[in-house]
Amino acid sequence: MTEDEGPRGYRSRADRREELLDAAALVVRDDGLPGLTTRAVAARAGVAHGVVHYVFGARRHLVVALLERQARASLPQVLAAADAHDDVRGALDAAVGAWIDLVRSEPERFRLLEAVSSSGLDPDGDGALVDAERRLWRDAVAAGLDRWSAAHGVVLAVPTPDAADAVIAVVDGLTRSSVGDPDGAATDRSRALLVRGLAHVLSEPDRGEPDRGEPDRGEPARDEPARAERDRAERD
Question: Which residues contact 75 (CB under 8 A, 6 or more apart)?
Fold first, then answer.
């Protein structure tokens, strides 16, 4: 049987691929990543088992394709939110907020990311899915950071790959937090703190330890009262 045969009749390869990805997303929603097998996807799509293998080959390629489709669907909204701001903190907060809103509105769509992010849930046992997922999101976030920086004339204080890793770490933590936070209050408080800290790191070069002979920027010098007293005495 070819890709275009089966109970649902003719499909182009592209249409068949999307149909199978829709079925795979439903399997993950209902049964999690461990339940995502090629046979389960074929049964949900109403096609012969061989059709899934014809379109995707190994199960691993099916999972990666599902991750890629989710990234294509989600990232434009996140990047658009960031593009509305010229400063690092504003752009970062808007982007993270847009992502959290997506998670809250459609939590079932993000079960796959949660499952793949944990190597203990990788049924292939070799971490290949975890590595593929990390590369996918790291490359996508890094490209988004480069595009935003170029568009707004901002030079980040750390290398783009490092910045991407940090953004993903913040987003992963907040995504997990939002799952157990029905009203979102705790997640929003954490978001404000994490975004402020990360924005500072991305904006300010690391200058090392402050010179102990000078006061820290923004702090009054310790001998300021004595100096003021001397100035008054001289004026008198």
Answer: 140, 144
How many other CB atoms sit within 10 Å of the CB of residue 82?
Answer: 23
User: H or E segment at 141?
Assistant: helix 128-152
CA separation, residue 60 to residues 37, 38, 48, 67, 130 (Å): 10, 10, 19, 11, 11
Say if CB 196 and CB 89 are below 8 A apart. Answer: yes
Contact 37, 116 (CB under 8 A): no
Tokens standing for 216?
A: 């820290």
pTM of the full predicted structure?
Answer: 0.69
Name the token pair of 89. 């903190």
Q: What is the pLDDT of residues 44-73, one digit of tens each?
A: 999 999 999 999 888 888 888 888 888 888
Which residues, 6 or more positions from 2, have their beta carbon under 8 angstroms from its beta carbon? 54
Give phi and psi for 5, each to the nearest 5.
-100, 165
Sign of the CA dihedral running 32, 25, 94, 148: positive
